[in-house]
Specification:
By secondary structure, the chain is α+β, with helices and mostly antiparallel strands. Helix content is about 25%, strand content about 30%. The protein contains 5 helices and 17 strands. The strands form 5 sheets. Strands 1, 2, 3, 4, 6, 14 and 17 form a 7-stranded mixed sheet that branches. Helix 1 links the parallel strand 1 and strand 2. InterPro entries: TauD-like_sf, TauD/TfdA-like. This is TauD/TfdA-like domain-containing protein. One of its GO terms (molecular function) is 2-oxoglutarate-dependent dioxygenase activity.
């Protein structure tokens, strides 16, 4: 799969058709320039339901327990500064489904913007082949080998998943990663790997400015294949609750939806 494509809204029907084809070929798609007469939510429902089934993505902000709602709001709240979902801080690179076991199902994640921050707040993306190249250039062959061979237990609110951080399939590299969702019940080797990889991402990849920032305006969206890239968020400036708000959804793709 190719890494990134930007698509501009045209008509609803044409946009859905172009976006559907892009999702098959690209890991990240920026859908820009919302110009439709229908409500934002309705367009994204229409598109999502045309290619798959909604996954109940919502979680209790404090406990992490799942809620029966296809949307989860990622919205600034100065009263809750200790959760990435509500804070204005940078969010490290991760995969959203690090602790969500989907089995053989294929999913597509997306954020659509209802309000952007006064400054900053771009969603950031990093392609996995670039990550592997960086590891090799830095002489981190041992770290790469451990990423591909050591299994790590991830957990949040009782939802558990066991994976290697890096893997491969017929379409390319795969990742399963969230530093803050690593289960304490791991081998010493796995826990050391987690620390080493986190340090590499923070001190080398982020400091080198290698991530792709995608700044969403109101109505725009970023679609991404969660396990084929890493993503995060730049810090931002906002003065009012809800000033920056992204609505996140997840689609379980139809079994015959073929990626290339």
């Amino acid at each position: 799969m190719k890494f990134f494509k930007k698509i501009n809204f045209t008509t609803e029907q044409e946009t859905i058709a172009e976006l559907t084809e892009a999702v098959k070929q690209y890991k990240v798609i920026h859908l820009a320039g919302y110009n439709l007469p229908i409500p934002l939510e309705q367009f994204y429902i229409n598109f999502a339901d045309s290619i798959g089934t909604p996954f109940n993505e919502d979680e209790d902000l404090i406990t992490g327990e799942r809620k029966d709602n296809r949307w989860i709001d990622i919205s600034y709240d100065p009263a809750i500064p200790d959760r990435y979902r509500s804070s204005n801080t940078r969010q490290p690179l991760h995969t959203d489904d690090s602790y969500v076991e989907l089995g053989d199902e294929k999913s597509l994640q997306f954020f659509y913007c209802t309000s952007r921050a006064a400054r900053g707040g771009a969603t950031t993306f990093f392609d996995l082949p670039d990550l592997v190249d960086c590891l090799k250039i830095d002489g981190q062959d041992d770290l790469l080998e451990r990423l591909m061979t050591i299994t790590v237990n991830f957990d949040k609110a009782g939802h558990k998943k066991v994976r290697k951080i890096l893997d491969q399939d017929e379409l390319g590299w795969l990742a399963n990663w969230n530093y803050f969702c690593v289960d304490k019940d791991n081998t010493p080797e796995a826990l050391q790997l987690v620390e080493d990889f986190h340090q590499f991402l923070e001190t080398r990849v982020i400091n080198a400015g290698l991530v792709l920032p995608v700044q969403l305006e109101r109505g725009e969206a970023a679609f991404f294949h969660d396990d084929r890239i890493l993503h995060g968020r730049n810090a931002y400036f906002a003065s009012q609750k809800g000033e920056r708000c992204l609505i996140k959804g997840k689609i379980i793709l139809e079994p015959d939806f073929q990626l290339s």
